[in-house]
Predict the 3D structure of the following.
Amino acid sequence: MPRYLVQRTFTEGLHIPTDDEGAKTCRSVIEGNAASAVTWVHSYVSRDKSVTYCVYDGPSPEAVRQAAQTTGLPVDRITEVSVLDPYFYH
């Protein structure tokens, strides 16, 4: 399945509490993504929490965008990516 890097901007910052409520929020994203056959792999968050770079597996950019609409998350850019591993060059 293709892998995508999704850039998102949160003008007020991304604030997910590290408690049961935060876990519930993340589960709701996972469930909303599943409806579009999209899997959230992991994310990177800028120090000021205004930008995230999220790695997703999914059938197409359109499916990733639909999942974002379902979960209410912003999308600035979707880029199909592949892994470049420095250990490949032994």
Observations:
- The beta strands are 3-9, 39-45, 51-57, 77-81.
- The helical segments are 20-34, 61-71.
- The longest helix spans residues 20-34.
